[in-house]
Design a protein that fits this description.
3% of the residues lie in helices and 49% in strands. By secondary structure, the protein is mainly beta.
Length: 193
């Protein structure tokens, strides 16, 4: 449709709302997973789009009082989420949450739906879909928080406010300064020239 609609997701008690949604993805069951300031919402995409209400109750509310920032779906149909409680892997069938690591996570990406990369406290961590850590790369003494990680061909580009890093072959990191510029995010589109 060619319309912008504002819909507020809430829990059954109307205590939590998704007025601030940071990220969303769709699972293989046709449900939207929405990362918000205070909870992770799950709702049928069909139900959400067919509703004419301005406020709608989510089908499932996970982990109240937890700030979620990034979510993504891997090739096994698991949701990966970064939150105020660390990095989590969530089974989309029974919604069981497995905490992979409790550290603060700055950014996350999934490459080819089977490799999870996160930036945390001056290091990049590389995980398999079973939650096992494959590798860890330190990226120097910079204290700049990584804002986003993008997969670009066989490289990862990690952007902080005044720097970007290119991770090559999952092992080498090249650092570049961004003079007179303060990035807030980044996006790679292979279709844009």
């Amino acid at each position: 449709t060619s319309q912008l609609r504002i819909i507020v997701l809430t829990d059954t008690n109307h205590h939590y709302t998704a007025r601030w949604a940071y990220h969303m993805t769709e699972d293989e069951h046709g449900r939207l997973w929405i990362a918000s300031y205070n909870v992770l919402y799950i709702i049928s995409k069909k139900r959400l789009l067919s509703s004419n209400d301005k406020e709608i109750e989510a089908d499932i509310v996970l982990m109240p009082e937890t700030h979620f920032s990034h979510i993504a779906l891997d090739k096994q149909g698991q949701i990966w989420a970064t939150s105020s409680q660390g990095l989590m892997r969530i089974n989309t069938i029974d919604c069981k949450v497995h905490n992979v690591m409790k550290d603060n996570i700055d950014a996350m990406t999934i490459v080819n739906q089977n490799e999870i990369w996160v930036a945390s406290s001056g290091r990049f961590l590389h995980f398999a879909t079973d939650g096992k850590k494959i590798d860890e790369l330190r990226y120097g003494t910079s204290k700049e928080k990584i804002l986003t990680i993008n997969s670009v061909g066989n490289q990862l580009w990690a952007i902080s406010q005044n720097e970007y890093r290119i991770i090559k072959n999952s092992k080498e990191i090249e650092l570049y300064k961004i003079p007179f510029y303060a990035a807030t995010s980044g996006l790679y589109s292979p279709n844009t020239k």
